[in-house]
């Protein structure tokens, strides 16, 4: 095997096809899109070189800043909730439900496999205010509270998007973190218990530090996934009401394909990439310091 | 060379070819490109899923008056959802793959790009060459030309619509209200109805445009028919106080709850249903809704119970009530790529027969001249024809001359205006800055 992998031709044969496909469908469009950031126009009217105009537009565009604001707010709120609820569920599986947890795990994981559009339709019906009254409003009405137009008010729509995504993803994070928790040796927990660590103290001093690496992975997964949110928002609110729930990704999509401005759309895409990169580096940095101390 | 060593040498080549083929299929069109035009053997049409009238009429023509054309180049139709319409057209136009005939871009500014890029057939010339230029009604022709800013006809008027307030005669009579002729009357009527527990207006706030149309009409009535053209030319801004006043007037209706509690979630069909089941007194809509009004199954209040009032005068305004808000719905265009001899034959046949067929079968008033008008038209349809015949001039709608972005921003925020969460100034600010970005 060593001999085969030492041969350059073998490496080329094994890697070549995958590299070619990857280059053609990933790298080429990325470089292409980078080129568009200094252009103005679309395939119909052609492209013109405009230098850094698109970047200037981006920094002075209130809609872009609103989209960044929404993206950050959404990413932070959802990451915290996803990982916290996921961790809570994982603790529940390991320390409370133990062997009986498989059924609950399956049930909580179930929304992860459902298609986003189906879940969005479900939530649209749940919170519907017109033309028919959805279950949630019907419940409010039965307590004598007037119906709320959930998708017509900016704050309410934000929390419904969060709620739906939390419901959809908490099962995934629970399983991810569960895998990290079951890796903690039983002897270690046993000896900590003998030393008098129980409940919250056990979690804080033993479980949390030992599951920090997997928590870190979850955080990076989550922040990157949530910064790039697209399908949930499109299917549930399509960025509305107005542009109250429009993340950068949707703004980029609309700019490129609805408003026909490929150049500015690519600029927004580049900004989103930089944002994701910054967040990942920031999380890596901050947690690495903790690990070495701890 | 042994077979084994040859096989070894060919292996990397085969792998590369396989990978390349895989990559190429990934770049190919997802739907097999069935709707692309350009050949002489079929006549392709692409439309919006929501609009079944055009495709139904074309199919009827293909089986009857245009049977010879259908035999030479069978009609092949395809459709996609209206919400993705402009995106899809841009992608098709970018690849030079527009259908022989398709509904035009929803945004006139996008249509302008297609025209500038030479993708859309010059119909003034084509119809002249075919000797059927007189089959397009002058009113429809001038509306289309105003829309695309030129002296050339680039689309066929498959509809000719007027817009205004349709009202439930019974509900108005019960509350002692007459059809309003001034904005003040309309606001008073809404207050009276609201106090009596009747929702004054049905409106699709989710779609937005039924609300923003009111803003546009108010501007035209208050500041005169050229007020929106001034905005498009840069001589005025939507954020100027006299323009903001129009948005404020509509926002006040929204704040008072006259559009209903959940107007932001009401879509087109729901609003239509609300009006046709007696759930609201007024309904601002175009005359394309006649098809729904004339359908006894949908219209539970009865077609005789539906009245039409022109958008009212604004007291002291420069506009007048007889300037009818008009549009040609979404007209159809022909692509230059697909304009072959067989397409020209189809065009001639459509120009000669579309008007009669669509009026007789679907009750839609089109911009084509009628040869044999049907004798027994419903009263509402007759009203629309009379208004069109008697109108001295027409005006365009609020977003007609906006950019793609301006149109989208205006319509997505229409719901906010309708439920009172946006003030007139905030709304106009959003729309103006979207238009400025272009």
Automatic annotation (TrEMBL), chain A:
Transmembrane regions listed in the UniProt entry: 12-32, 74-96, 103-123, 158-181, 202-223, 262-284
Keywords assigned: Cell membrane, Membrane, Transmembrane, Transmembrane helix, Transport
PROSITE patterns for this protein: ABC_TM1
Keyword Transport: yes
Location relative to the cell: Cell membrane
One Pfam family this sequence matches: BPD_transp_1
Record-linked SUPFAM superfamilies: MetI-like
Main localization (coarse): membrane
InterPro entries the UniProt entry points to: MetI-like, MetI-like_sf, UgpAE/MalFG_permease
Membrane topology: Multi-pass membrane protein
Domain ABC transmembrane type-1: 68-283
Protein family according to the UniProt entry: Belongs to the binding-protein-dependent transport system permease family.
Protein name as it appears in the record: Sugar ABC transporter permease
Species of the source: Agromyces allii
UniProtKB/TrEMBL annotation, chain B:
UniProt keyword annotation of Signal present: yes
Signal sequence annotation: 1-26
Classification via Gene3D superfamilies: Periplasmic binding protein-like II
Record SUPFAM superfamilies: Periplasmic binding protein-like II (SSF53850)
UniProt entry tagged with the keyword Signal: yes
InterPro entries in the record: Bact_solute-bd_prot1 (IPR050490), SBP (IPR006059), TAT_signal (IPR006311)
Superkingdom as given in the UniProt entry: Bacteria
Keyword entries, A-Z: Signal, Transport
Record family assignment: Belongs to the bacterial solute-binding protein 1 family.
Protein's name according to its UniProt entry: Extracellular solute-binding protein
């Amino acid at each position: 095997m060593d001999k085969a992998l030492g041969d350059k031709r073998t490496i080329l044969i094994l890697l070549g096809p995958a590299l070619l496909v990857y280059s053609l469908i990933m790298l080429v469009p990325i470089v292409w899109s980078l080129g568009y950031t200094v252009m103005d126009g679309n395939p119909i009217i052609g492209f013109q070189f405009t230098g850094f105009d698109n970047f200037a537009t981006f920094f002075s565009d209130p809609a872009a800043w609103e989209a960044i604001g929404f993206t950050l707010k959404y990413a932070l709120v959802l990451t915290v909730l996803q990982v916290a609820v996921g961790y809570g569920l994982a603790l529940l599986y390991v320390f409370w439900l133990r062997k009986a947890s498989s059924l609950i795990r399956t049930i909580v994981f179930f929304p992860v496999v459902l298609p986003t559009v189906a879940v969005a339709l479900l939530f649209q019906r749940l919170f519907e205010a017109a033309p028919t009254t959805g279950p949630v409003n019907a419940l409010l009405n039965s307590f004598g509270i007037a119906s709320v137009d959930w998708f017509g008010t900016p704050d309410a729509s934000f929390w419904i998007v969060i709620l739906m995504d939390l419901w959809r993803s908490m099962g995934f994070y629970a399983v991810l973190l569960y895998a990290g928790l079951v890796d903690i040796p039983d002897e270690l927990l046993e000896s900590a218990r003998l030393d008098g660590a129980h409940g919250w103290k056990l979690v804080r001093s033993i479980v949390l530090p030992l599951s920090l690496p997997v928590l870190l992975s979850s955080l990076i997964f989550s922040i990157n996934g949530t910064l790039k949110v697209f399908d949930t928002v499109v299917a549930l609110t399509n960025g509305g009401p107005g542009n109250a729930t429009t993340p950068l990704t949707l703004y980029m999509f609309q700019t490129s394909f609805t408003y026909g401005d490929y150049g500015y759309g690519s600029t927004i895409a580049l900004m989103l990439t930089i944002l994701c990169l910054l967040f990942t580096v920031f999380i890596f940095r901050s947690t690495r310091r903790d690990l070495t101390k701890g | 060379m042994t077979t084994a060593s040859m096989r070894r040498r060919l292996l990397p080549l085969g792998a590369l070819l396989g990978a390349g083929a895989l990559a190429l299929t990934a770049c190919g069109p997802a739907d097999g490109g069935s709707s692309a035009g350009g050949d002489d053997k079929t006549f392709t049409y692409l439309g919006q899923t929501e609009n079944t009238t055009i495709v139904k009429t074309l199919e009827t023509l293909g089986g009857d008056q245009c049977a010879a054309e259908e035999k030479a180049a069978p009609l092949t139709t395809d459709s996609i959802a209206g919400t993705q319409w402009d995106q899809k057209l841009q992608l098709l136009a970018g690849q030079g793959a527009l259908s022989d005939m398709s509904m035009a871009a929803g945004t006139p500014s996008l249509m302008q790009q297609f025209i500038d890029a030479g993708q859309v057939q010059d119909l003034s010339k084509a119809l002249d060459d075919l000797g059927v230029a007189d089959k397009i009604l002058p009113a429809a022709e001038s509306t289309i030309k105003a829309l695309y800013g030129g002296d050339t006809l680039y689309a066929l008027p498959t509809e000719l619509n007027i817009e205004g307030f349709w009202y439930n005669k019974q509900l108005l009579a019960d509350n002692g209200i007459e059809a309003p002729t001034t904005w003040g009357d309309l606001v008073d009527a809404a207050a009276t109805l609201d106090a009596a527990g009747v929702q004054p207006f049905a409106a699709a706030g989710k779609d937005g445009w039924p609300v923003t149309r009111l803003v546009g009409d108010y501007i035209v009535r208050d500041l005169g028919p050229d007020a929106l053209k001034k905005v498009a030319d840069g001589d005025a801004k939507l954020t100027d106080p006299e323009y903001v006043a129009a948005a404020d007037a509509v926002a006040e209706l929204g704040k008072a709850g006259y559009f209903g509690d959940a107007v932001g979630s009401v879509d087109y069909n729901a609003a239509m249903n609300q009006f046709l089941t007696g759930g609201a007194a007024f309904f601002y809509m175009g005359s394309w809704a006649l098809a729904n009004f004339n359908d006894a199954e949908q219209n539970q209040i009865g077609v005789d119970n539906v009245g039409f009032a022109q958008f009212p005068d604004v007291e002291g305004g420069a506009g007048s009530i007889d300037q009818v808000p008009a549009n040609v719905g979404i007209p159809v265009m022909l692509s230059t790529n697909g304009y072959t001899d067989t397409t020209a034959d189809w065009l001639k046949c459509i120009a000669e027969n579309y008007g009669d067929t669509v009026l007789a079968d679907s009750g839609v008033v089109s911009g084509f001249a009628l040869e044999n008008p049907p004798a027994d038209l419903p009263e509402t349809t007759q009203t629309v024809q009379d208004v069109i015949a008697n109108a001295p001039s027409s005006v365009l709608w609020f977003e007609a001359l906006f950019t793609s972005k301006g149109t989208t921003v205006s319509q997505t925020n229409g719901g906010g205006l309708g439920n009172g969460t946006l003030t007139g100034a905030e709304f106009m600010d959003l729309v103006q800055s979207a238009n400025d970005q272009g």
